Amino acid sequence: VSLNLAFEEAPLRGSISFISQSGTLGNYLMLLARAKGYSFRAFVSSGNQAVLEATDFLEYFGQDEGTKAIILYLEGLQDASRFAKVVRNIVPQKPILIYKAGRFDVGVRAALSHTASIAGNDRIFDSFCQQVGLIRCYDPLHTFDMAVALTTQPLPKGKRVAIISGGGGYCVTMAEAACAWGLEVPTLDYATAQKIKEILHPFAPFPLNPVDAASDVRPMTYARVIDILMGLDYIDGVFMMIPFMFEFQLRSAAAIRELVDATEIICGLPAKYGKPILGNMIPRVSVGPALDLFQKAGIPFFATQDESARAMSGLVRYAQIISLAKEVPFSAEKPRFPRADQPIAYVSRVDPVNIPERD
């Protein structure tokens, strides 16, 4: 059944389910997400939660096989203990990303007048998220960028990334965005760098990571280099901005054949190595069979470097949550609170939390 009772047209079909306590904001975010090409399994607004609350919908989507990731916009919780229990049951199988109102007093006041929700102490809620394995975001759209990557790419084993582009400026800004989101950009070992250098144009800079291909538009160059980068045991994922999705490269059958062959190689690398690849492209300029193949293979492309880095950080964060979930059995009696130097923490049990209206 495909039922649409919202004001806008139904979203593209996908595997992300979105629960919003605000119907208007939910519709607005869905329109923005649709403009970015994101697709959804379902969208529901819980409103003032007079009958059904967000936790009820969360529990349903947790059991829904078609839902691979869940996004929440909340202004308040009615039963934190039940919510925590439901989250703990879902998180080992699928990620839950949340944006919650109430970081500042004005947000607390607005939430109270909007849905009569007591937004509560933000520091308590932040610890609450860390305990139960929620991925908390501080901008509603951040949840969508992360969810797209989480539903399409394998989880990385760490946070070390490689970067390749046809231009140096992208390499610089992508590296800085990666570091801003807590990722690491390790220097390539000399033997690997020399191997990649032999593939690039002679005038290309020596590839230390990022790899600047110096305006190389040969598709197979990128396929070969990305294959090498993905095979390194000290690289956990790759960012790419590949300049071969433009009309001028579709002028001959041979050029199209090389483009398709290279794209198919890249599309197979996440499954081959069990590592994610995220791309950047110029919206409404990138065209042709390469883009179609990437989309069918589930390799997401983002408009900005910050979006790509944010999405990769979501993959890293959920991988850490899953790892810690395996270390701490669900029968544990006491929660393990995060240390200041431990940004990700997951425990199997959360005691009931009374969230006050003010500090």
Task: Kindly describe this structure.
This protein has 359 residues and is an alpha/beta fold. Helix content is 43%, strand content 13%. The chain has 2 domains: 140 residues, Succinyl-CoA synthetase domains (Rossmann fold); 157 residues, Rossmann fold (3-Layer(aba) Sandwich), CATH 3.40.50. The strands form 2 sheets. Strands 2-1-3-4-5 form a 5-stranded parallel sheet, sandwiched between helices. Strands 7-6-8-9-10 form a 5-stranded parallel sheet, sandwiched between helices. The termini are far apart. The C terminus is likely disordered.
Give the helix/strand layout.
Elements lengths: L11 E9 L2 H13 L3 E7 L8 H10 L5 E6 L5 H11 L5 E5 L4 H11 L6 H11 L2 E2 L3 H11 L10 E5 L2 H13 L9 H8 L13 E2 L6 H12 L6 E5 L11 H21 L3 E4 L8 H9 L3 E2 L2 H23 L32
Parallel strand pairs: 1-2, 1-3, 3-4, 4-5, 6-7, 6-8, 8-9, 9-10
Helix pairs in contact: 2-3, 6-12, 7-12, 9-10, 10-11
CATH topology of the largest domain: Rossmann fold
Shape: globular
CATH superfamily of the largest domain: Succinyl-CoA synthetase domains
Number of strands: 10
Question: How far is the N terminus from the C terminus?
Answer: 46 Å
Which CATH architecture of the largest domain? 3-Layer(aba) Sandwich
Biggest pleated-sheet summary: 5 strands, parallel
User: What percent of residues adopt helix (DSSP H or I)?
Assistant: 40-55%
